[in-house]
Design brief:
about 350 residues, 5-stranded mixed sheet, alpha/beta
């Protein structure tokens, strides 16, 4: 997208004052930004919002927040943000549940986690400096949406750096991040930082070092097997006129998504939901089954509540994963999930027969 003159922005901003508000709320703003200045920073939008509504607050230091669910520092060029995310922007705190006043969050957990995990595990000044540099990444951790006590992805990356520097301390450092309830077994890493570096390989290497095992008891496994036997599979004979949603997870191609969405619109009604590009616990099944169940349930219920009748998966393994865990999710949430699961290849086959 080229910016020749001006750009019209539609901004939805988050408001919440912990002292006076019971629930957060949003307000809409429209701005015309002059694009003759190529150096306009994203953070320059914040005082523009405040000028229109003095009740909008943001931190003057350590500024991070979310735009369309990606964590930003505000130093990003506005043109780059709009090119990637479009002209409709939703501005929220880095973590909504930690908001004190608007974008101002309680960030006391950031240093608390470092002191708790690394106080007695060979941490040095350079480790602290590296950890502090990961401040935006800490609050981008997807796991916080499910476990507010999670130690954070930044802790894991700092541990990896410490092991790299001094491998003799590896066992003790790995033990420090392997807390049964809030440690690495909760992590299903996603790169939620705007233009951020992807640390998937580093996180996966740590998990392999620890050799995480299933947290699911034998009775739970037996119970799940029974559930899968009694659940009636939801099937669909025709896609014509159906409400169809697409799940791509973290394995997606923009071109493939566009093509599939267009194909859906040609045969039925396209249903969109915000978690269609989020991981759903696929990597947690053997290490933290309860969390995997939570995440999968959140995705499925969002698709269902958005009105979907059919859920297409671009990845066959994701289709198998949801098929295996859906009975447990139904039992946990106390609802039947009337969704038909089909692979992308099956969708293409069915849609082709309709066109023929």
């Amino acid at each position: 997208m080229e910016f020749l003159n001006n750009i019209e922005l539609e901004v939805k901003a988050f408001f919440f004052n912990a002292e006076t508000d019971y629930l957060p709320y949003y307000k809409n703003f429209s701005f015309t930004v002059n694009k003759t200045d190529k150096e306009t920073k994203l953070k320059q939008l914040l005082p523009m919002i405040k000028e229109q509504n003095p009740m909008f607050f943001y931190p003057e230091e350590d500024l991070i927040f979310r735009v369309n669910d990606l964590v930003v520092t505000g130093e990003e060029q506005l043109s780059a943000v709009v090119k990637k995310l479009g002209t409709e922007l939703t501005i929220e705190p880095a973590l909504k549940f930690r908001s004190n006043n608007g974008l101002i969050i309680d960030n006391s957990d950031f240093m608390h986690q470092y002191r708790t995990v690394f106080a007695r595990h060979y941490a040095e000044k350079e480790d602290l400096e590296y950890y502090i540099s990961l401040y935006p990444l800490h609050y981008a951790s997807e796991t916080f949406n499910y476990n507010r006590e999670y130690i954070g992805d930044a802790i894991l990356l700092t541990a990896a750096k410490m092991i790299e520097r001094n491998p003799d301390n590896k066992d003790e450092i790995l033990a420090a991040i392997n807390d049964e309830f809030n440690g690495i077994n909760c992590c299903e890493y996603e790169n939620n930082v705007f233009e951020g570096e992807d640390y998937s390989e580093t996180i996966n290497a740590l998990k392999n070092e620890i050799k995480l095992t299933s947290s699911k008891s034998l009775m739970e496994k037996i119970g799940a097997a029974c559930l899968n036997k009694v659940r009636k599979e939801v099937t669909v004979d025709s896609l014509e006129g159906k409400n169809i949603a697409l799940y791509v997870g973290d394995k997606n191609s923009d071109e493939l998504v566009k093509e599939t969405n267009k194909a859906i619109e040609n045969i039925g009604n396209l249903i969109t939901f915000s978690m269609s590009c989020k991981r759903a616990g696929q990597s947690l099944v053997t290490s933290n089954h309860e969390l995997a169940q939570q995440k999968a349930g959140t995705v499925l219920l969002e698709a269902l509540d958005a009105g979907a009748e059919v859920l297409i998966f671009t990845n066959d393994e994701d289709c198998s994963f949801f098929g295996e865990i859906v009975a447990e999710v139904e039992s946990a949430v106390g609802r039947e999930i009337e969704l038909a699961f089909i692979t992308l290849s099956k969708f293409n086959e069915m849609s082709s027969s309709v066109e023929a």
